[in-house]
Amino acid sequence: MPCTTILVGKNASYDGSTIIARNEDSPNGQFTAKKTIVVQPEDQPRHYRSVLSHVEIDLPDNPMRYTAVPNALPDEGIWAEHGVNAKNVAMSATETLTTNERVLGADPLVPPVHEKGTKGQPGYVPERAGGIGEEDLVTIVLPYISSAREGVERLGALLEKYGTYEMNGIAFSDVDEIWWLETVGGHHWIARRVPDDSYVTMPNQLGIDEFDLDDAFGDQENCMCSADLREFIEDNHLDLAVEGVSPFNPRDAFGSHSDSDHVYNTPRAWYMQRFLNPFDEDWDSAEALHTPMSDDIPWCRQPERKITIEDVKYVLSSHYQGTPFDPYGTAGDAATRRMFRPIGINRNNHLCVIQLRPYVDAGNAAIQWTAYGSNPFNALVPLFANIDDVPAYFRDTTDTVDTNNFYWANRLIGALADARYNDTRAAIEQYQERVGGAGHAFVARVDRNVAGKGYDEARAILTKANEDIAEFVRQETSDLLGKVLYATSMGMRNGFHMSDNG
Fold this sequence. Notes:
Elements: E1 3-8, E2 18-25, E3 37-39, E4 47-49, E5 56-58, E6 66-68, E7 82-84, E8 90-96, H1 101-106, H2 137-141, H3 148-162, E9 168-173, E10 178-184, E11 188-193, E12 199-202, H4 213-216, E13 223-225, H5 229-235, H6 250-254, H7 261-264, H8 266-276, E14 300-301, H9 309-316, E15 348-356, E16 366-372, E17 381-384, H10 392-395, H11 406-419, H12 421-450, H13 455-489
Antiparallel strand pairs: 1-2, 1-12, 2-15, 3-6, 4-5, 7-8, 8-9, 9-10, 10-11, 11-13, 12-14, 15-16, 16-17
Helix pairs in contact: 11-13, 12-13
């Protein structure tokens, strides 16, 4: 899946929370309707079989309740994508990554082989299960982990045992730490702890640019990896560092630096860091240290100011505003405005921003900010994660267009507003401000209401509160859809503005 991720350490965020956020985007030529659900322990499978790869895994018998954002139509599997479990551990899976031929030759991916022909006849090919992939990861990991570090350990063990058929990056967070895991070939992996004072930007490209192998095979304070990674690197001549000059760089060793990266990936990292660190360096002149096509944009860096939920939403909705590359802009020309792949594109399925807060009780610490559809035209809605059910407006997404759910209402708004961007922009921005402001007020009010309450009573309050914010958002979204529909209709080519009444 083409996606974009940002991770924010607790000392880099505005309130001391850990924040992990990612757009899930559809492949070109299709949309994937999404819904948000709660998976109860009794509904979690004990034996799992992947729809795509047919890999079969026996799962532990003690799963926790967790939230998930699966496909509305499960014909290709669950694709749970994001969630928070009952111990306030969060997971985002996955950011599709790139690799290179040296890695694929040393540790090939593990795709499924489907049965061909007739058994016993010449040319018959039996079925062979593949490895695990994005379809599977949240379901087989999140219900069983008690910390972000445990998430790395469990997924790492599964990758080494079953392999994977794709390169992926996966985020884990708890109230104290964020860890980022990247797969390396079919069975290998690396993981690095996000520095508390930094943020990470991840387009669809292997990102970690510095890795301490001694720590990974020692105290594992900030780095972990597959058991034989050191030998894997040495035996296959993967380390491209110049001895005594540069440290081990996984992006060089395991990643790609293709011409396609310079259109599809590096510009996104450039724009996110340009926004969050506007004064640290020159981003736009001919002498700029980093350009949209630079291969050495840092994996993580300290922001110039604390990062808010609105900052996360802005960068994950961005389309190169203020540059010649904005498809809605007036700078540049027709060629530059289509030069680079935006972050906020038509194929955004949903955005999930998981905020784990250290200053409230554990029962209401986890907020799963949620948006569906194309991000330049939608708004984030805070949903408390410690609940037994999700409001129907977010949960009951249909596989056909229906404005009674948040997903399709946002899809329609995006398609209509894009056609009349300048005419609808003010209404979109007002909607985003109203929903965002109401969201923050909602969180503060609920925090006050649950303070000092018992666990079960607090959960009942959170469930009711989610219903209240869902109803508010439903009304606001319906109103915006009407405004955007009217504005777009006025631009129809068969419009005739002399009316019957003069």
